[in-house]
Design goal:
This is Nucleocapsid protein. It comes from Psylliodes chrysocephalus. The chain has 16 helices and 9 strands. With 407 residues, it is mainly α. The chain has 3 domains: 3-140, no CATH class; 149-285, no CATH class; 306-346 and 353-399, no CATH class. The chain has a 3-stranded mixed sheet with strand order 1-7-8. The protein has a two-stranded antiparallel ribbon with strand order 2-3. Strands 4-5 form a two-stranded antiparallel ribbon. The model is unreliable at 1-14, 165-181 and 402-407 (pLDDT under 50).
């Protein structure tokens, strides 16, 4: 069975779709096919039988190595970026062909992946494929944010060049010189730990935040507007206005963030806004960041329109994990039980949620705080791999939250 054996125009839960919706879904599914073919090409360079396929579905247990899945996602993102840059800036893109990576002792050259992919003659529609690629490759970003917590903002190079390193005696936090990615504490923006639930994606690199814009926490979007100094200001403002559309003076608030030249100029408004949103809510459409190797395994078995949000997708992933006896493999310094919680948080973005709710809607009744599972992350690269039993759902819900009606 292949992905082409499945009707790409079938609606979720059997709902009939109009022709335009069917066309849109068919185009999107065609791009997913291309992205997953690129994943297959990458997987072929890995040690033999690293990833399960639909052809192994009758085997008693499916093991999905999340470390190798993350490595493949990183390579896919690099190749995709090269292909996109090649259209607009071939000179800059050509430099990427010299990149290589080491996966369990195997040297993988980006140029080899590109050559084989281009030989197959695929046509990528970057307008459709780019957001899909960002979602497919986001699991490691969410895993890392589960590890670090949402307390630091990653800054863009152009922001650093424009503002320099903020001095220690100013009203803003000093940048950490030892952090190679250059980050600044959320305190510089007037925010505290009580606002962390509004900061999903704050630790993502700026380029990935832009690609996942509508899946970010509301305060992450606001901070992104403040930090943006380039061509994405209008796009960021549009997303922020949509998220905050239930509030009065949303245009004025957004423009205030746009006009702020340093975090301190917007800190007061940011804090007041965050306080309001912790009491009420904002619009959001959170996505499921499943590991790409899991998505690749499940893709041929889909029975409705593929989505990264909603109860249908949650049920699809959850039920197939049970049906095909899928287990994860990952290097970890913690217990199997604690690692399973971290993986669940990373897929469903629940690391910022009320753990009491999770105990009611999942098969796991006793959840631990991030501090209690930090051993999972300690020197993880030097640890042995464990087989992890995934946590599954008892009840399903939509990933989108809050006020989803027009005001």
């Amino acid at each position: 069975m292949s992905s082409m054996d499945v009707d790409p125009t079938a609606g979720a839960s059997g709902i009939n779709l109009n022709n335009s919706e069917r066309t849109r879904i068919a185009k999107r599914n065609a791009q997913i096919d291309i992205l997953l073919r690129l994943f297959d090409i990458i997987a072929e360079t890995f040690p033999r039988d690293t990833f399960p396929t639909h052809q192994t579905a009758e085997i008693e247990m499916q093991l999905i190595d999340l470390d190798n899945s993350n490595a493949a996602a990183g390579i896919l993102s690099t190749v995709f970026t090269y292909l996109r840059k090649k259209q607009n800036n071939p000179t800059e893109a050509a430099k990427m062909l010299n990149l290589k990576t080491n996966v369990e002792g195997t040297i993988i050259n980006i140029s080899d992946i590109v050559k084989k992919f281009e030989e197959e003659g695929f046509e990528i529609d970057f307008l459709i494929a780019t957001p899909l690629m960002n979602i497919f490759c986001a699991f490691k970003l969410a895993f890392d944010e589960t590890r670090t917590g949402a307390t630091k903002v990653m800054l863009k190079d152009d922001y650093l060049r424009k503002h320099g390193i903020i001095s220690k005696d100013s009203t803003n936090q000093k940048l950490e010189k030892n952090d190679p990615k250059e980050s600044i504490n959320i305190n510089a923006f007037g925010l505290t730990n009580q606002h962390i639930c509004l900061l999903q994606g704050i630790t993502f690199t700026p380029s990935r935040r832009t690609g996942l814009l509508r899946t970010l926490g509301p305060m992450t979007q606001c901070i992104s507007v403040i930090n943006e100094t380039g061509a994405y200001t209008d796009k960021l403002q549009s997303a922020t206005k949509n998220t905050l559309r239930m509030l009065p003076m949303v245009n004025e608030i957004s423009n205030h963030f746009k006009d702020a030249t340093v975090p301190g100029q917007a800190a007061g408004v940011l804090k007041e806004l965050a306080d309001i949103l912790t009491l009420s809510t904002a619009r959001s459409t959170q996505k499921i960041f499943a590991p790409i190797a899991l998505l690749r395994f499940l893709w041929p078995f889909k029975t409705d329109a593929w989505s990264a949000a909603g109860p249908n997708m949650m049920h699809f992933i959850d039920s197939n994990i049970k049906l095909y006896k899928i287990k994860f493999v990952m290097r970890t310094g913690g217990s199997e039980e604690d690692t399973a919680q971290v993986i669940f948080h990373s897929i469903y973005g629940t690391y910022l949620e009320d753990l009491g709710i999770l105990s009611q809607i999942t098969t796991k009744k006793a959840w631990k705080t991030r501090r209690e599972v930090e051993a999972v992350f300690t020197k993880r690269a030097t640890k042995n791999s464990l087989i992890i039993n995934p946590i599954t759902f008892v009840f399903y819900s939509k990933m989108a939250t809050s006020l989803l009606t027009k005001c």
